[in-house]
Amino acid sequence: MGESTPNIDSRYSPIYQRGGTAGTGGAGAPAAHGSRWASPGEPPQQRPDAPAEPDLPPAPDAGANVVEVVPEGVPHNDAAVSAGRRFNPFLLALWLLGAALLALGLWAVFAPLQVDETAVNGPFPQWIFIISQSAGGIVVSGSILLAAAGALSAVRWDRQRGSAQQR
Asked: What's this model's pTM, rounded to 2 decimal places?
């Protein structure tokens, strides 16, 4: 199998064979660099020279090549963009849902007190029992939503204030 050593197969790298070494290719010959072994008739493959100056990344202060693509027929002005950023429908939904849940929860706390005396003598309304049992969770949920809406509004206000000061 091998050229000069019976334990070395010349088809494969000697480092993967018993008795082979990493730096030699068989009987002391240096290992060839590349994806295949050179046959005796082929000249050794040469590595291309590295470029003298490596490509450096652009400097951080260099301007970026950013192009804004706007569809045809759409007016582009900064007033329309800044007016669109003033209103966030999701933040408004958080405020409204939080306020509604808090009001519903506070009403549910006092709902059993609003039952008539005639209703107490008869069968007790089940909806009052269910609402009064879930009043605490409703109040807490409304409070959490209001706190989240307030925090998001504060962060948004701070960002707008910071961007206005940079101009």
From this structure: 0.45
Q: What is the pLDDT of residues 88-118, one digit of tens each?
A: 889 999 999 999 999 999 998 887 777 666 5
Q: Is 30 helix (H, G, I), strand (E, B) or coil?
A: strand
Scored b (16 or more CB within 10 A) or e, 28-60 reads: eeebeeeeeeeeeeeeeeeeeeeeeeeeeeeee
Smallest CA-to-CA distance from 149 within 89, 84, 92 is with 92
In 47-134, which residue ranges form alpha helices assigned H by DSSP?
78-84, 89-110, 117-121, 126-133
Nearest to 129 by CA among 144, 112, 148, 152: 112
Q: How far apart are CA 140 and CA 110, in angstroms?
A: 16
CA distance 35 to 79: 62
Q: In whole angstroms, what is the distance from residue 62 CA to residue 50 CA?
A: 27
- CA–CA distance, 11 with 20 (Å, rounded to integer): 13
Task: Please state at what angle helix 126-133 crosses helix 135-166, rounded to 10 degrees.
Answer: 50
Q: Inter-axis angle of helices 135-166 and 89-110, to 10 degrees?
A: 150
